[in-house]
Design a protein that fits this description.
This protein has two helices and six strands. The chain is an alpha+beta fold. It has two domains: 97 residues; 57 residues, Head domain of nucleotide exchange factor GrpE (Nucleotide Exchange Factor Grpe, Chain A, domain 2), CATH 2.30.22.10. It has a three-stranded antiparallel beta sheet with strand order 1-4-5. Strands 2-6-3 form a three-stranded mixed beta sheet, with no helix packed on it.
Length: 196
């Protein structure tokens, strides 16, 4: 009774406007197709959304490429930094090799029965050469003897009684201290005066 004109009770007529109510097969059109007569602002909004999604996909793709390039740059810089450190260490070792050779010659001369004076002179010469080369590389000796004690550059090993005018002063240096620029490589180990 889909399209009956009258009800059995003689009441009102019902007209079913569904296309399949007349026996047509709905087929694959069970989901309502988009209407061609939708308002133009909806179509415009859909176009804007599609355009925005396209730009977003492009941005995400470009961002992934940028991150990949940045990671590659970071890895290259780390490799170059490690290589530069290795080269600097190599230069320092090369400077020390000559001194090592000189020490070897002094040791050989002592074993062959050289005089004690000649051995002492050779060792003194090697010591001076080594200190000279290290100073050329930027090493600085920390002034300590007869200076006010400074815990930043001096290490107090002990205190020694002294006159009031020497209170807090370095009276004796047990081992030299060295700095490289602003970096203290080794503080001077000292004995400090304390007025009693």
């Amino acid at each position: 009774m889909a399209n009956s004109g009258k009800d059995d009770d003689g009441g009102f007529a019902v007209h079913d406007r569904r296309h399949w109510a007349d026996g047509e097969d709905p087929g694959d059109e069970s989901v309502e197709a988009p209407r061609a007569d939708r308002p133009s602002y909806v179509a415009e909004l859909e176009q804007r959304v599609e355009s925005a999604e396209s730009r977003l996909r492009e941005y995400i793709s470009a961002r992934k490429v940028e991150q990949s390039d940045l990671q590659a740059l970071r890895e290259r810089l780390q490799r170059e930094h490690a290589l530069e450190i290795a080269r600097a260490r190599g230069r320092v070792v090369a400077e020390v090799l000559d001194l090592l050779d000189d020490l070897g010659r002094a040791e050989e001369a002592a074993r062959e029965g050289g005089s004690l004076e000649a051995l002492l002179e050779g060792v003194t010469l090697v010591h001076q050469q080594m200190l000279s080369r290290l100073i050329e590389m930027g090493l600085e000796r920390i002034a300590a003897l007869n200076t006010p004690f400074d815990p930043e550059i001096h290490e107090a090993v002990s205190v020694q009684p002294c006159d009031a005018d020497q209170d807090g002063m370095v009276l004796q240096v047990l081992s030299e201290g060295y700095a490289f620029g602003d970096l203290v490589l080794r503080p001077a180990r000292v004995i400090v005066g304390k007025a009693g």
